[in-house]
Amino acid sequence: MKVDAPPPATAPAAAVPPTADAAWHRLHDEATAPYRQGGRFAWHFARGKLGRDPVFRGLIERGLIGPQRERVVDIGSGQSLIASLLSVAAAMQAQGRWPARWTSTPARVDYTGIELMPKDVARAQASLAHLRPSPRIVCADMCTAELPACDLVVILDVLHYVDLTAQEGVLVRVRDALGPGGRLLLRIGDASSARGFAVSQWVDRTVTRVRGHRVSPTWGRTLPEWKALLARLGFTVQSVPMSEGTPFANVLLVADLPAAHGTSSHRPT
Ligand SMILES: C[S@@+](CC[C@H](N)C(=O)[O-])C[C@H]1O[C@@H](n2cnc3c(N)ncnc32)[C@H](O)[C@@H]1O
User: Fold this and answer.
1) Which terminus of the chain faces fewer neighbouring Cβ atoms within 10 Å, N or C?
2) Does the beta carbon of 116 sit less than 6 angstroms from any atom of ligand 1?
3) By C-alpha distance, which of 49, 269, 259 is closest to 152?
4) Is 223 in the pocket of ligand 1 (CB under 6 A)?
5) 194-216 residue pLDDT tens
6) pTM of the predicted protein model
């Protein structure tokens, strides 16, 4: 009797990289899910912020946090959304669920968040305790907090809370913590755009109140003033409009320090 040969074993289908939109939806869902641990406010705030603020998808899609930037310091870190985002991004890349045209982010992130408000620190710590390596989320004032040696500093919508002298003091310490080839991602409001700057300040004060914090005065600079300050501190600066779809005058400054003497002039992304 003729026995049928067994069907050839089928190789597992190769993972098909997702589209950018599908990947972003997944990143948004998976990076915000842990905030359920931090309570209803933490979860709703994380979903709204990550979903509506164009900066987070912009950082990923523009490849601004390249694979070499493992040591990340997030100043004014709020709920430490960046830590959750980069952790999920690393997992998606390991599983082949990363769009072909997106640059990789670090496979392992050593994250330090520095945040003034104890409630935000508590929400972030309660939500992100599962991450490995464990994020360090410190309740401290950026004007005095120790900044660890790092490859990337992220400061999103924070420096206007302190006066101009203190802003410069923070940036000097950021430069020293970064070292050669380091990158600062700094989002500021452009004070020369009177309407957009006023809207962002009004929203800022409202959100500060909703989060249960006291509203304090703020200090702005125009975009050319921000760029001049960073250039004086040794950074090469590019600006990326980062208020798409919002009424704000927000600009993301990508500020890079030169590589060390004797190394390739090519800066890591
Ligand atoms: C507009 S929120 C932005 C939060 C976070 N960067 C983000 O994009 O989700 C500004 C944050 O800076 C924090 N902050 C203000 N002054 C600070 C200071 N002196 N030191 C550390 N954090 C500060 C606030 O408490 C708040 O969480």
Assistant:
1) N
2) yes
3) 269
4) no
5) 666 666 776 776 766 666 666 67
6) 0.88
